Sequence to fold (295 residues):
Amino acid sequence: MDYKKAIQKIVAERKARITDARLLYLDLLRTSRELYETEKEIRAIKMDEILGKPADKNKLETLIRRRDAILHSKGVTDEMLDPPYRCGKCHDTGLVDGKPCSCVINKCIDDGMDVDATFENSDLSLFPQDERERISSVYETVKAFCSKFPYTNKLNLLFMGRCGTGKTFLASCIANELSAKGCSVIMLSSFAFVNRMLKYHTTFDNEKLGYLEPLLDCDLLIIDDLGSENIIKNVTVEYLFHVINERMTAKKHTVFTTNLDSDHIRDRYGERTYSRLFGSRLSYGVALSNTDLRK
Ligand SMILES: [Zn+2]
Fold:
């Protein structure tokens, strides 16, 4: 989905919620004589106010209290009649200062984030005894990264280690923590990443930018399981470098998880990408346990 469609969707969803709320209220007026009469009186007093006639303020307050009590007795909450904004930043308009809001960028790509992954849910006892202290300090570093975000020393985090060492879990913790702070976060598998880039590479209509733009614009991009994707000529290596390079130039943060070690990364993606990921003081690479925690 591109920005335009995402914004249209957000605005349409807002309208639909308001319409639902109005229909609900009309239905309540139809089915409750008491509510109907109260509402009629409230409107009459409000009309007097508008027309500059003397309005009975005390009576209005009493009527509003009565209306609230009737609604309350029917289990109707304020939120049902006056739906709150889903996004406090753009008030569901999709735009902040003329630019796409983080909620728009998030909507462009909805790829399976583990919503249960939180630092509170992490269980370091899954790690072997002799690894726990080191892993615990990794977690502290990552938590500090989240709390300082976006003003961090590091732009790139690399979590390395075999399958089942909690790399994806840790990346998901970051995703959830920063999403909750209102940042735009895109997490996708390297397989999905390459598929998007292939579409970008081979599409020439107005959908084209929608495949790449959110990956460059989001506050945090997470590419999960780097190395599990296909190497497609002119796509995988080239676009991976392009995205990393553009994001670093724009001082944007990227997290990678991978089973590969640094030598394999150099072999697979070439010197340029390797040096961005390992040769930069802006990158923090760490091996999680060598033991598969799922065994
Ligand atoms: Zn928004």
In short: The two ends are 38 Å apart (CA to CA). Residues 201 and 234 are 9 Å apart (CA to CA).
